[in-house]
Amino acid sequence: MNNSSYQEWRNAKLKSYPQSVDELFVEIAGLVDLSVTEIAAIKANCRRSNMAIYKCRDDFVDRAAVCAFASNFGLLRLDHHLCANEDGVSELSVASRGIRTGYVPYSSRSLSWHTDGYYNDPSRQVRAVVLHCANSSATGGENALLDPEIAYIRLRDENPGFITALEHPECMTIPANSGTQGEIRPAVCGPVFSRDLRSGALHMRFSARKKNIQWRDDEITSAARDFLSEILADENGMVFRYRLQAGEGLISNNVLHNRTAFEDGPGHGRLIYRARFYDRIHSTS
Ligand SMILES: [Fe+2]
Q1: How far apart are CA 77 and CA 72, in angstroms?
Q2: Both ends of the chain: CA-CA distance in Å?
Q3: Hey, how many other C-beta atoms are within 10 angstroms of the C-beta on 101?
């Protein structure tokens, strides 16, 4: 994006960006049979910040309802993740047995900043995610959220060279994932920031994990990463924090997020349905 179109886009984005997490909320009657007004309100929030938090009055929601909800936004092509159910929707809860015990999302531990599917190859890029909270934990489990377009703006305003470094096709490599049976997934190498060729929409692929990530070894990439860490840690910045309650959910164009550690208790076994899509939310780019 050349500088004059960037400035125009940047100014419009910052002007309409929500000032607090409350501006992300949309009340809905149920996940199935959304009204035209509810759909429009969710899309409007997603246009401003690439995300919306819905609060659903219907207390029965299953995995099929999550997919029905997502289809209203053009989210149809599910990423069938290793630990997902057959329908492609994962149930994030504390796993006590099976393959899921090897992965932090299925534990009560904290999760560092990332976008989903950063280890997917470009043909399986995760462009949108729905997280629906079916049951909340007793304590903890708060998410921090940041629109990748805001991260892009802050990096570019600081030093346009940071963007060049983060757009490099060899910027971030995730080594192969090997299980006891052999290789589960080959190494994946790619940029942090990329743009969809047709729509021009920005995509961000990122993980703050220290282990199992290989970064391009040069000064500017390292400085860009340090600056990004500052943006994500900035208490006065544009990061939203929210703890989803039962019946609430987040729909987003795969925004940056993390999760605090949590504790389950009687009647409070945290359960999140997670659906990841190759599609982007309609009419947000
Ligand atoms: Fe995630």
Answers
A1: 13
A2: 15
A3: 11
Please tell me the distance between residue 80's alpha carbon and the centre of ligand 1 in angstroms. 15
pLDDT tier at 188 (50, 70, 90 boundaries)? Answer: very high
Pairing of strands 25-28, 188-190: unpaired
d(CA 257, CA 111): 9
Q: Measured in angstroms, how far is the CA atom of residue 125 from the centroid of ligand 1?
A: 14
168 C-alpha to ligand 1 centroid (Å): 23
Dump strand ranges (E) for the chain. 25-28, 51-56, 90-92, 111-114, 128-135, 139-140, 143-146, 172-174, 177-179, 182-185, 188-190, 193-195, 202-204, 214-215, 240-242, 248-252, 256-259, 262-263, 271-277
pLDDT tens by residue, 39-51: 999 999 999 999 9
* Neighbour tally for 228: CB within 10 Å: 22
Among candidate residues 151, 83, 140, 153, the one with its CA nearest the CA of residue 111: 140
pLDDT tens readout for residues 245-274: 999 999 999 999 999 999 999 989 999 999
Collect residues with CB below 5 Å from ion ligand 1. 116
Contact present, 130 and 143 (Cβ < 8 Å): no
Q: Give the residue carrying structure tokens 């100014």.
A: 11
